[in-house]
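batch_manifest entry 22 of 60
target: Cytochrome
source organism: Abeliophyllum distichum
requested by: lab member K.T.
priority: normal
notes from requester: please return tokens only, no post-processing; we will run our own comparison against the previous entry in this batch. if the run fails, retry once and flag.
--- input ---
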Amino acid sequence: MELLALPLSLALIVFTFVLTFRPRSHRGDAKLPPGSFGWPIIGETIGFLFGKPEKFVGDRMNKYSPDIFKTKILGEKTAVICGPNGHKFLFSNEQKYFTSFRPHPMQYLFRSYQNNRAAPPPPSSHKDESKAIRQPGFFKPEALMRYLGKMDSITNQQLQMHWNDEKNTVKVHPLAKSITLTLACQFFLGINNPERIARLVKHFDDVTLGMHSIMLNIPGTIFHRANKAAAAIRKELLNVIKEKKQAMATGAPMQDILSHMIVVTDPNGRSMPDPEIADKIMGLLTAGYSTVATTITFLMKYVGLNPEIYEKIRAEQLEIAGSKKAGELLEWEDVQKMKYSWNVICETMRLVPPLQGTFREVLTEFTYAGYTIPKGWKVYWTVSTTNMNPAYFRNPEKFDPSRYDEGEAPAPYTYVPFGGGPRMCPGKEYARLAILAFVHNVVKKYKWEVIDPNEKVEGDMMPEPEKGLPIRLHHHHH
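--- output ---
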């Protein structure tokens, strides 16, 4: 259905817009980056969304310039800045030239509270988005330290629940999603209710796919499904907010981001309306969901295919486990010792990036690599210009955690899974702890083999193994 609806609807869109499309010229003296805007209206969106990211970017770097090229994706004239120099330029000039930008499908899915009111959002709103999260320091080490034991016990509990002793063959991807969403619900909402969370998993998958999709709201399209899922999540979150407010009224402790959002007020003393809280929380949950679940899934795949890597991780984790009393949960010092395990996670993210890249909006015209980027254009940076490039990673196809050993570290700005500069991913530390807590628990309990090493991986923006990555488990009995 999806694929059939697509060419048809595109033909319709193109047809409608060709009638109204008038190219207008940019003033003559500025030298725009080389590249092509592709088709009227849809530009090169199809290639961007449905092609391999490395290929989309690589082909254009070869054809136009290794530094920068222009394209038109998701309705926006976009300059793609390439390579370590591009990353450095972007991350170093964050406040000066750029502000954050979410593609239109994302804005639409996460901004219900602005869609239905006539008033345009205040001009400062793009700054507040991340302030709400950064301010109380939820992602600061101290806050995460308090939460680490929970991460450890939830992961353990989920493994017990889904991979108990009777099962030999299990699927990794559904478990990774369940663990990840359970952690996020506990951290952001302070709820740990398996039935409720199971209901949400499917919706979050739909929303994540819809964030990078063609905004066509007719039945059968990815975007239509995402929209319905977002509505269902919103409804569930509004209930959670109501329950949380009742609990807070009776003096329940406030230990999660949701309680903070409920009490926080803007400079005029107004608190955030519930629908807005729901949308912001949905954005946070989405950001922390598929990226962590994807990394855990592919980590299991590569470690399952490389027994010698498994043994090294297990040795590292057992040494940490051995230093603890029975029933003691992970602590900050433990995680700092998981150096090899973290290298394995880094290598997983290099081969299967949890996020391909992000957009910025250009605040003032600037020049880079001899080309001018006009105000109002978008800039896109992507890990796919460096991650698989043999100039920066020898044998880039090979899964090799030893490449991050002391003295071997990748050159600056070649490896940026979390971005960099002031807009570096605020959830980086959270993701690191969540994945390490998973690694710790899984290698203590199991050894595993990947049943189909050549299982097809679907999706590029959000890669997932077609059959959920079935593995054969062997239990370690202490």
